[in-house]
Specification:
mainly alpha, 0% strand, 372 residues
Length: 372
């Protein structure tokens, strides 16, 4: 296709309001940017970021996943867009976390703090992981993430870091096998590890390092006799070793805050997340768009008055034609709430006669106060 034909096609897609056309435009722009050497200039970067952030917010899950795959290794990708994709659900975020050259150490550390365990594991698996990120992982002491780090042969782990991993493997059995094969494991470390691994891993240690298995077996027997009848530190901690997964809702709060700060949080986003069965993300996004508390939105969604939810949706600019679908999806995900029969449905429809978002917001707050 000639440049003129490409330009004509992109112009046609840009003018269309159809969701499929907008997604085609986004993917076509990725291909175009891959071919343009001037794409890294500050002016072009600013324009690209604005365009992509506007398009990705309304994109369906499969398109966001495809976009993440295309941008994973792109050095020109807008940082704000890459960070938003890195906070998306794990199937979308995985290639970006693993490969994106745009993600720096501070971005990866932020993911360790803000994202889910699945995201943290992908950070720990990232090739050539830098020392600051390694230290952050060691400091968090999350078993699943430490196990992923132990299996990352390319991570820049110091001798002190290896010692911390070795000590953690006393209580986290899954770490032992990758540590036995780790290129930075020293002979001295291997002898310590020998004391608490199974027979097959002991054989691997003996094969890899010049150690005396008889001497190691004797040392292990001595350690067992010494510990007999005593309460082991690891055993005392066994009941408390489990840590709950990071609060998924907190990660969602941060994602919505990023979109809102970038001016990319729109009412159309509400329908998209419901279709992806993310009720808590819908609740946070609606509260953020309307300036409501999460509890107010929760009360509206759990009431017997669907017009409360309708007023909240009107106040953020949702179209009347979209609300029946939104109400149906919310009820499907929220145990049939908000409840109400045919008359309640009519009241919800009448809520859209309030055309001004400000008036709808005031009516929503007054109605909540009335129901108590």
């Amino acid at each position: 296709m000639s440049i003129a034909e490409q330009a004509h096609e992109l112009m046609a897609l840009a003018k269309s309001r159809d969701a499929a056309d907008r997604e085609r435009l986004m993917l076509a722009l990725v291909d175009l940017c891959d071919e343009d050497e001037d794409v890294r200039s500050p002016a072009v970067q600013s324009l690209i970021e604005s365009i992509f952030m506007n398009l990705v917010v309304e994109a369906e899950r499969d398109i966001r996943r495809l976009l993440a795959e295309k941008l994973a290794s792109a050095p020109w990708a807008p940082p704000a867009l890459v960070n938003v994709l890195a906070l998306d659900e794990i199937e979308i975020a995985r290639p970006v976390i693993a490969l994106s050259p745009v993600l720096g150490d501070q971005d990866l550390i932020r993911l360790l703090v803000e994202a889910t365990i699945e995201h943290q594991i992908e950070v720990a698996r990232r090739p050539s992981l830098g020392p600051p990120v390694v230290e952050a992982i060691l400091g968090q002491d999350e078993p699943a993430v430490l196990t992923a780090l132990a299996g990352n042969d390319t991570a820049e782990i110091s001798i002190e870091g290896m010692a911390k991993l070795l000590e953690a493997s006393r209580r986290i059995a899954a770490m032992r096998s990758p540590l036995v094969r780790h290129p930075k494991l020293t002979s001295e470390m291997a002898q310590r590890l020998y004391l608490w691994v199974g027979q097959s891993l002991r054989a691997a240690i003996v094969t890899r390092f010049r150690v005396d298995p008889a001497a190691l077996d004797q040392a292990m027997a001595d350690a067992v006799r010494h510990a007999h009848g005593q309460v082991q530190p690891a055993a005392r901690a066994a009941g408390a070793a489990f840590e709950a997964d990071p609060d998924h809702e907190e990660m969602e709060h941060r994602l919505i805050a990023k979109l809102h700060a970038a001016g990319q949080l729109k009412s159309s986003y509400l329908l998209r997340v419901l279709r992806e069965r993310k009720l808590s993300l819908f609740r946070i996004a609606l509260a953020t768009l309307g300036g409501y508390s999460i509890e107010d939105v929760r009360r509206a969604m759990n009431s017997d008055r669907p017009e409360l939810l309708a007023l909240a949706c009107v106040s953020v600019g949702m179209d009347r034609s979209v609300f029946p679908t939104v109400l149906s999806l919310v009820r499907d995900l929220n145990g049939g709430r908000p409840t109400g029969g045919v008359e309640a449905g009519r009241r919800a429809a009448r809520a859209f006669s309030v055309r001004e978002p400000g008036q709808a917001s005031t009516a929503f707050r007054h109605a909540l106060t009335a129901v108590g």
